[in-house]
Amino acid sequence: MKRLLRPSLSRAVSKRPIRRLHATGSDLNKQQMAHAAADAEPVQVVLNTTSTSTKPRVVPDFIINHVAPTHSGSAWLQSKRLSEKEAYGEASLEGGYKQFREDIRNIVPDSRVFTDPVRTLAYGTDASFYRLVPKIVVKVHDEAEMIKLVQYAAKNKTPVTFRAGGTSLSGQAITDSILLKLGHTWRYRKIWDDGKYITVEPGWILGQVNRMLAPYGRKLGPDPSSIDSCWIGGVVANNSSGMCCGVAQNTYHTIKDLRIVFHDGTILDTADSVSWASFQRTHKHIVDGVMQLAKQVKADEELSALIRKKFSIKCTTGYSINALVDFDEPLEIIKHLMVGSEGTLGFVSRATYNTVPDYKDKASAFIVFPTVEDASNATWELRKAKCTDAVELMDRRSLRTCENMEHLHFLRGIPDTATALLVECRGSNAEEMQARINQAEKTINDAGLLTYHVRLNGINFSRDPAVCTAYWDARKALIPMVGAVREAGTSVLLEDVAVPVQNLAKLCNGLEEMFNKFEYYDGSAFGHALEGNLHLVFTQGFDTPEEVKRYEAMMDYLCKLVVSLEGSLKAEHGTGRNVAPYVEMEWGKKATEVMWKLKNLFDPSDLLNPGVILNKDPNVHTQNLKPLPVAHGIVDSCMECGFCESACPSGHVTLTPRQRIVATREISRLEALNTASSLDKAEEMRKSYEYLALDSCAADGMCAEKCPVNINTGRMVKDLRAKSVESNTDSYVNQLATIASKNFGLMMGGVPIVLNTVDLFHKLLGTKVMSLASSFVGPLVGLHWNPYLARGASPIKAPPSAVQTNAQNKKVVYFATCVSRTMGPARGDFEEASIHEKTMSVLAKAGYEVILPKGLSNACCGLIFDSRGYPKQGEEQGNNLEALLLEASENGAIPILCDTSPCLMRMKETFQDAKLKSAMYDPTEFAANYLMEHLVVAKREKSIAIHVPCSSKKMKKDKYFEQIARACAMEVTMSPVPCCGMAGDRGLRFPEISGGGVQSSVKVPPGAAMVIRDPAVGPNTTIAWDEVKDNCSEGFSTSRTCEISLSNSTGSHFKSIMYLLDRCTIAKESQATA
Ligand SMILES: Cc1cc2nc3c(=O)[nH]c(=O)nc-3n(C[C@H](O)[C@H](O)[C@H](O)COP(=O)(O)OP(=O)(O)OC[C@H]3O[C@@H](n4cnc5c(N)ncnc54)[C@H](O)[C@@H]3O)c2cc1C
Ligand code: SF4
Ligand code: SF4
């Protein structure tokens, strides 16, 4: 039986079962080792380098794909499976699910319907600590599809759950029924009235919407810290908020209109009077029912007062029943009831927001108080004074985690009772901001609240972006820091409560007692104090019934504490399954009954996300807890938050980083369970895991850029690929790689010939016939042609001598990478010359003497080998190159220009010599630092596009790209694509990742591309990335293979930025002569 993490190994070496063991550093699980020895089966050991666990872990056994659910509240779901036989994929579907699958065959193509165990599990996971595995996942592309899917679900009585970014924490975005997951197609947007309003579809990430509004000086009100990962659908449905938005700027208070799909597929567009008139006719019972409830609530003074009071602070427990007291018009009531309804009343297919001003003038102060009471009193005073935009409280435990961070060393040695407030003041201009700062300082001083800063340096508001960023980064790091250091196999739990600000101190003290009582010694509390909202972060394993009981007892205690302080059990994260059993405790019987009536009115058959918000099961919050088994050292600290997903080029085709980790963990768990059925399931999962998780990963590591705990899933993938090859040392592919490495120059010499031959066929056959032919040939040879494939590069020539170039004592070592030595421009591009010719031309104009490293034709950084799973050959190549460059640059004394960004990053990562590393530059940084001052640059281009490769983003070179591009063009469109997915030639082998190929029905997900204009041309705006062809003459970047991918996905020719520089510059001397 083959095992997951080394598929090739199991294929090639052994037909016997291989036992996998997980070890923490040197601390291997001894029981397993002994057991393995006794079995004498081949043993694989995965070192979990980040894990600190020392005790043997129990493998929990409560995730299911086929166990009858008991939690959801849906009668249908509570029925048992008809057959107990193991079945996977469509064969496992029964009853209504089987029929639903049949019914939707003509609605959604098979490529977007998933029933296999890998993708149902992976797509079904959200950021909460609950696990339910959907039976069917459908990627839905538009509203018309959604209507039909909802209707067929109603027909078959199969509940549905909508899914946006999957960053929910309370268990509201998961299901064991049908998951309707939004594809990357929900991207309609319209900005109007000078940015005062924006209409968006639910697939936009909140941060992207803000980037579209930035040129207007506006943004959306909600500001959750998941801003760059959560989607509009989730923001509306959870009524999310954050540090600055408070209650006033959440979706409930800033929504203008919604377009809603109801349980029977009916549409209501609240902006359209015709739609409303029709809804009133067809759904009179809903309109009447809502009005009846509003009347009942308004007539009940006690209930109305309770509702008003509870929503004066943040509250996402239960439904937004404030709509029943805030509005008289049924249209407004229905619209506002949808906000925060967590997909249980209807689907939001469009949202129009009233935007809010985005003030640029801001300053922050980190103020330490001697006691939590002082900090809480200060918050209360500041709230009354209405002069601050954010006040974040951090308890003593939180402060300990950031005392070693830059600009925060003053926290060292403060007393055990200290509590801090991070305060931000903003203004529409500097004067307004200063007035607010003055008011804030006066408020704290007048209240006589002693601060430690008085002794240190007063209440010090800083305007320095570096200092302010350090403060806010420290605040934002509090959750990840707990996640990063937790024991492997435990979950990070994030509770989210709010109390009236006057009760904040009591809440803090109560939480401290609670952490001690239930032995959550790593627990800390911090949060949006201005709104009385605190987050509690702590870690918890759910391996044993005792641990689950401890959690249950703590939740009971917490809920009683918060309710006794007149607070909200969920301030901003939504009720979900997590506090559904406590809704009545918080709201009382009358209000809860109103909520049930609303649910029955809008969803009479209980098919929309049943069991979420309202649930009759008092134990729903302790069921279906997510196991987080130890799986691989690189990813064991993953919290499954989903922040990495938006950076991943393969996410829209196969799996995102989080989903790769989830699948890896589950196979690991199943293997560790070691029962016949678990091994059978693991085997089934491995069938698709290799392609979905390993082959289709670009291994670019962009996920690490977004991950709060810096997990590079690509590294795990490379490691697994390498292990698979490593174990096959005698295999012919490994031997072939070694031969290729040893004869690299010879091999690369043949590449231009091959490329030119392919190009000749392209010329003879034309693009259409060639595309057709390649669709047959591509799968056979494993490389897929596209019309933008490079032609062969011209051979690299010796650089002109110093005398010929008029070199002014300036020298540069030019490392033309193997990619630029072999790949020239594509057919159809008017450029004929190769990158190295353009680079030499620019260097000559700037008066540089160019030195080519000896043995250049054999030189390679090794990336090509490493990314394919041949790290040994890659290392050899890298070592050779380092020696060549040390010699050519006189040990790093002469600067080195490398023309390909991914290669430069690999060199920086793997070279040993520090001086050499700091002497190496990509084309943009070299141009900015060494060339521009020696050249006359003209804005010759009208409108161009720029793509910063992921490697350059990681090396923080973005600013140089922008600088060069803006010097050469009147209008520059900056690509929003985090990674093009090309990853060397992987995009040619798996074109679907880079936006080509039939599997990829959506091209590279278009984001909001920033268009930066010369002031003479007009103000900055944004466009969708797929509009780049219409807006820009060409695109420029610094990686030839990425450029092929970008050209193919946009239809616009992309090439090296050196072409742009050569076109737009002349030597200073030439100007003098002219
Ligand atoms: C580390 C971390 C920090 C966080 N910080 C904050 C914070 O500061 N403030 C905050 O408020 N939240 C926070 N969250 C929670 C979460 O990110 C937000 O609630 C977010 O808005 C959820 O959006 P999503 O796109 O991930 O939605 P999902 O999780 O996919 O879905 C959320 C809910 O909306 C429903 N839904 C999705 N799309 C639609 C639709 N189109 N129509 C109807 N229903 C729909 C789903 O069924 C589900 O019930 C945080 C989460 C994490 C992991
Ligand atoms: S890899 Fe990082 S960003 Fe991605 S889900 Fe895990 S913790 Fe979150
Ligand atoms: S390395 Fe790239 S493709 Fe692979 S999981 Fe990370 S972001 Fe996705």
UniProtKB/TrEMBL annotation:
Pfam families: FAD-oxidase_C, FAD_binding_4, Fer4_8. It is an enzyme of class 1 (oxidoreductase). One of its GO terms (molecular function) is D-lactate dehydrogenase (cytochrome) activity. PROSITE patterns: 4FE4S_FER_1 (PS00198), 4FE4S_FER_2 (PS51379), FAD_PCMH (PS51387). One of its GO terms (cellular component) is mitochondrion. It is found in: Mitochondrion. Keywords: FAD, Flavoprotein, Mitochondrion, Oxidoreductase, Transit peptide. InterPro entries: 4Fe4S_Fe-S-bd, 4Fe4S_Fe_S_CS, FAD-bd_oxidored_4_C, FAD-bd_PCMH, FAD-bd_PCMH-like_sf, FAD-bd_PCMH_sub1, FAD-bd_PCMH_sub2, FAD-linked_Oxase-like_C. Its EC number is 1.1.2.4. The keyword Oxidoreductase applies. GO terms for biological process: lactate catabolic process. Its cofactor is FAD. Residues 130-358 form the FAD-binding PCMH-type domain. Residues 629-658 form the 4Fe-4S ferredoxin-type domain. Belongs to the FAD-binding oxidoreductase/transferase type 4 family. This is D-lactate dehydrogenase (cytochrome). It comes from Guillardia theta (strain CCMP2712) (Cryptophyte). The lineage of its organism: Eukaryota, Cryptophyceae, Pyrenomonadales, Geminigeraceae, Guillardia.
